[in-house]
## 1
Amino acid sequence: MAEQSKLSLGGKDYDYPIIKGSVGPDVIDIRKLYGQTGAFTFDPGFTSTAACESALTYIDGDEGVLLHRGYPIGQLAEQSSFMEVSYLLLNGELPSGRELEEFSRTISRHTMLHEQLMSFYSGFRRDAHPMAIMCGVVGALSAFYHDSTDIADPKHRKISSHRLIAKMPTIAAAAYKYSVGQPFMYPDNRLSYTGNFLRMTFGVPAEDYEVIPEIERAMDRIFILHADHEQNASTSTVRLAGSSGANPFACIAAGIACLWGPAHGGANEAALNMLREIGTPDRIPHYIERAKDKNDPFRLMGFGHRVYKNYDPRATVMQKTVREVFDAMKVSDPVFETALRLEEIALHDPYFVEKKLFPNVDFYSGIILSAIGFPTTMFTVLFALARTVGWVAQWNEMISDPNQKIGRPRQLYTGPTERDYVPIGKR
Ligand code: SDX
């Protein structure tokens, strides 16, 4: 018999089973609570709620641990590749050499977009935010792939998963090209997944484009760091959309829309804009005070996390990658010194120490992406590109879960109780 948790409500006692995972917090199975007690739990923001069972990613926020299928993010970032991590997330095990080669080749076969999809871009203003374009174009994929939207068919789920992972770099690069008025670049499948993306983004038809290995490696590592992250807001959005049976392209478009928010994936753009606004280290104390002021909506972007109450392990790798990219590009950026100084001051300030606010994945990523040549408006697009494999893996896991049902939370109603309509002449 599973260990039980006891709840007393309305003078009656109820037992609810405790379920243990392979690691991490136990869960109290309250699926029968409403039926037995007539009461709901109340947990806005889901701070204490496990919405699903998953075997993909484990985070220990107190210890700053992030595992993908059991492998620590630091080891994957240093030793693996984004294609290999994608295979791992989708299939549960690291691939053999042959499996990785076959997977990479399969993905490369889906990098091109339907030619008619390219006409969607011209409908946008040139100054449209690229995330607006991503929401529109990825959602429009549903209109092109009727042969892979039967989510009950594992073959359909597999090909639509591969299409989404493969096409995101092409769609993202085209969004950048459209914003700068340059011609779209077609994929060149002789290149790696990440090299192909860099060439589609920064290459032009007029010249050969040479992928710089150090930049390709740094970009690939950034994709690894953003691949998946348990049940974050955008992943939960994808799961909720998928729970209704919506097609995978529509679900990923919903995830992109959610990721855009500055409290989530939009923080990398907001963090670099903040660091540029701060400018020099002498202005840091003023911004630290603003971040602590309850009456000021300003927050230190790139700091804090719902789960990490320790240093985000991804931020550690990001900080190291800044130096590698600066060396490879033979550039420097005073903003990096400001970021290092800001981190040092914040981590010794009682407010940030008490609230356990540490740099997160978004604090340093913008500095690297800016050094590589991306405008800030592309930062969240890159986050969405990389997170697509996580969203797709979580979506597949949800569809295959025998316990999955349509997600339909309830509420604490505090509006007016029933009252009769008053004709306008009597108001
Ligand atoms: C991502 O969930 C994921 O896994 C997300 C992500 C992923 O990979 O998918 O990791 C990616 O979204 C990273 C987070 C990027 N966002 C930012 O950097 C934006 C700045 N950070 C905050 O907005 C905030 O920290 C959140 C949104 C990230 C977390 O918010 P929570 O968990 O709801 O925590 P909270 O807002 O309740 O903050 C707790 C306290 C509050 O003070 P009190 O009300 O208790 O007095 O800390 C304060 C907050 O005011 N606080 C900050 C702060 N973040 C929290 N104060 C100043 N600056 C900050 N950055």
Note: The pocket of s-citryldethia Coenzyme A is lined by residues 229, 232, 263-265, 267, 291, 299-307, 355, 357, 360-362 (CB under 6 Å).
## 2
Amino acid sequence: MSHADRILMGPGPGNPYPEVMEAFARPVLGHLDPDFITLMDETNERLRQVFRTANPLTFPVSATGSAGMEATFVNVLGPGDVVAIGVNGVFGERMCDVAARCGAEVVRVEAEWGTAIDPQALLDVHPSPKVIAVVHAETSTGVRNDIAPIGAGKGNALLLVDCVTSLGGIQLEVDDWGVDLAYSGTQKCLGVPPGLSPVTVSQAAIDAFVEKSQSWYLDFTMIANYVTGGGARVYHHTAPISMLYALHAGLGVVLEEGLDEVQARHQACGDRLQEGLVKRGFQLFAQEGHRLPELTSVIVPADRLPDGVDEAGVRHRLLVEYGIEIGGGLGPVAGKVWRIGCMGHTARERNVTMLLGALDEIMG
Ligand code: PLP
């Protein structure tokens, strides 16, 4: 089976929209070419629409989602600043590591893997944090953490949200929910390959920037002159032109279909998949009421694995016999949970039908 035939339903990249792959074939312009600047401006405007924000400082960082995480933390946190972080999976944990490397004092609020962070607990954990940070869609567990109540109760703190697996897939209202810094990735619900990290930054966050960010490359005050600078652009780095074409095209597909419609498509696929799994006797891992439609986590049915085949063996058979990639568990749930992505262009009912049929054939 050719790689092109594969259905990527893991937590990593999904299948990109065809329009996105066509965009990669366009001639490469110079990174200060006026036509490229126009495309960058349009891309930023499209990002404002999907983030649902009016923030002028909205653009894709030229690196993956992890760089968006570092960029948002390193611009607002310095030695001694207090940050309250919700931790209920790998990516909340990674936030703590990044914040600690900024020299910040990290105050954690934990929830068991598979359950959601209690917004009030996060608000109450420290009387005056500079930043409250949380992951919207925890890809390691398939759990959605509620953002709106944290924004409503944040007081003078800045709210920093990881939207890598939520942007485009589920409701996200940056301005209405009081989110000050958000970052995402291209490879999840936007239907674009990995490589860029869309970010958005409020005026309150800009006003609270550290005097000199510890990172040169990710210093928003310098990047801003290049990526959102209006007429007079100042060179900062050489933008990855073809990736920007791809993101521009992917956002175009999403906005043409309609953001609400795209989110409804993700919800319909997630519902169909989760109902199909439950009907077959599988147990879902994520807490009810907080299940992501775009990332379904399911407990590996140890008693139903075919003779002599372990959970990795089932995933391997799905890949080589059916061309379907699903993800394994991470950290404490490695070997115990499967993570099934249904994101971006991959979020199609036919893909769900194929996966359920393949599982029926393999598991009986
Ligand atoms: N945050 C979340 C919630 C993620 O799912 C991921 C990647 O899967 C990241 C951050 C890191 O993004 P990247 O792998 O693009 O660096």
Note: Residues 7 and 351 are 7 Å apart (CA to CA).
